[in-house]
TrEMBL record:
Lineage, highest ranks first: Bacteria, Pseudomonadati, Pseudomonadota, Alphaproteobacteria, Hyphomicrobiales
A matching Pfam family: ABC_tran
GO molecular function: ATP binding; ATP hydrolysis activity; L-isoleucine transmembrane transporter activity; L-phenylalanine transmembrane transporter activity; L-valine transmembrane transporter activity
Entries under PANTHER family matching the protein: AMINO ACID ABC TRANSPORTER ATP-BINDING PROTEIN, CONSERVED COMPONENT OF ABC TRANSPORTER FOR NATURAL AMINO ACIDS-RELATED
Origin species: Phreatobacter oligotrophus
Record-given protein name: Amino acid/amide ABC transporter ATP-binding protein 1 (HAAT family)
Domain of life: Bacteria
GO terms under biological process: D-alanine transmembrane transport; L-alanine transport; L-isoleucine import across plasma membrane; L-valine import across plasma membrane
Keywords: ATP-binding, Nucleotide-binding, Transport
CDD domains attached to this UniProt entry: ABC_Mj1267_LivG_branched (cd03219)
Amino acid sequence: MAPLLTVSGLEKRFGGVTAGKNVTFSLDAGEMLAIIGPNGAGKSTTFNMVGGQLKPDAGSIVLAGVDITGKPPREVWRLGVGRTFQIAQTFVSMSVVENVQMALISHHHQTRAVTSAATRLHREAALAFLDRVGMADMADRPVNELAYGDVKRVELAIALASEPKLLLMDEPTAGMAPKERTALMQLTSDIARAHGIGVLFTEHDMDSVFGHADRILVLVRGEIIAAGTPDEVRSNQRVKQVYLGE
Ligand code: ADP
Ligand code: MG
């Protein structure tokens, strides 16, 4: 079967800085793929090229057989790329379930719907997405009363509501306690597997990466210097030298 995502030969320069050099990888449905590397390696640049926030100078990005290279973010999102952010993006004064309802309204192009209509529209569907992330029992609580780990789970439900084929997660566990991190990563990989969603994530926390990624890409100065399973990457000499500092 063809991979869900095929990234070939991406190049990106900012003036004299090489942020992407022949970046090539693929990602299967249901797979968790991590991108790691030192600060300034080009992780966010790669992410933003896949998400449509940045246009590559060269190369191609194909999602489920559709060329999405250089398409604007909204188009990329419509074609099946969901996204979560380093700092969770939610409507904090709205309730948990209303946040997911808003995502469903957007996904179904009912952009003229107003908040009062949203109190009914898609409520059952929204509760089903909240159930997937274990937040259905907190559906009517305002988001600003939640613990941060729970906000991150709501954000995941919001992303899932657009029924993505691929989910981009930029440092999903930033700002979380170690126990919460493990729970969020386990939840994410369970959902990815159960629904055949590919997950591409960046992460500083190495326990989240080595404990939950199926494969890892190591990026240094815009170039992939190693790729493989956690065991393969952990024992890679070049990774030890230039990245893990051993
Ligand atoms: P990472 O996410 O791995 O820390 P980035 O992708 O953010 O790295 O950055 C890669 C390199 O590209 C860095 O040297 C950074 O300064 C540079 N860079 C990133 N975005 C821009 C931009 N919009 N304009 C100029 N330089 C940028
Ligand atoms: Mg970054």
